Amino acid sequence: MIISLMLALIVYATTSAQEKPQIVRLAKIEVDSAQLDRYKILLKEGIEAAVRLEPGVMTLFAMYEKDQPTHITVLEMYADQEAYQKHLQTPHFKRYKTATKDMVKKLELIDVVPIGFETKMK
Amino acid sequence: MIISLMLALIVYATTSAQEKPQIVRLAKIEVDSAQLDRYKILLKEGIEAAVRLEPGVMTLFAMYEKDQPTHITVLEMYADQEAYQKHLQTPHFKRYKTATKDMVKKLELIDVVPIGFETKMK
Q: Tens of pLDDT along A18-50?
């Protein structure tokens, strides 16, 4: 009984942490137009690997502006600072960072605070 | 058997539509600092009502910048143009729009195209 209560608490704590990322950020990236197609492939690969392989990487939404396709925004959510630091050390992030080094002309990281996050997507 | 196949196809089609919003947008909003607290409450209410009540409003993520709290970004996803037009006619959207008319100093709508949307949140 006590063990199941403890398990329930652990599950609850894990779920809560998953639902409330402590780090939420907008990365604004400007990419060299000549290398844009390749950049988008590398970004997509990096994002998919991070969310699939890292428990603390909760959301990575990458998009480009229709009218300015070299202007990219990534909405990033990490469980906490530790998860983010771990993310920076992963092989897939290092691969992305190295491969895109000469493609990225500008990178701005903007810390944000959620007002409301509502979705019906999974 | 044929009916269950058809049903399965319909469910699949609905799910696919839900997973691929046709309209994705970043709304960049600048708010009068004196009315910011009230604005955030109204925005949060509007977002919650829209995603809860409207099948075609798939995602509304609203956030403010830590270093510039009057700068707000909303990531918006609608199933299609029709869903978006319907959204504009709902009582909750009209209430938000009227109530915040004098709070919003700037509004920029930026159409974006997904590169990769990955999340483990529900």
A: 568 899 999 999 999 999 999 999 999 999 999
Which chain A residues contact residue B44 at CB under 8 A? Answer: 115-116
Q: Give the span between the Cα atoms of A59 and A82, in whole angstroms.
A: 16
Q: At A59, is the secondary structure helix, strand, or coil? A: strand
CA distance B66 to A111: 6
Q: Is the ipTM of this complex over 0.95?
A: no
Q: Cα(B84)–Cα(B78) distance, rounded to whole angstroms?
A: 6
Topology (CATH level 3) of domain A18-111: Alpha-Beta Plaits (3.30.70)
**Tokens 């894990």 map to which residue?**
A14
Instruction: Give the closest-approach CA distance of B59 to chain A in angstroms.
Output: 4
Mean pLDDT of A54-60: 96
Measure the CA–CA gap between A75 and A110, rounded to whole angstroms: 10
Q: Domain locations in chain A? A: 18-111
pTM: 0.85
**Is the minimum CB–CB distance between A26 and chain B shorter than 8 Å?**
yes
A62 touches chain B (CB under 8 A): yes
Rounded Cα distance, B60 and A116, in Å: 8
Mean pLDDT across chain A: 90
What are the pLDDT digits (tens) for B41-56? 999 999 999 999 999 9
Q: What angle do CA A57, A66, A52 make, to 5 degrees?
A: 20
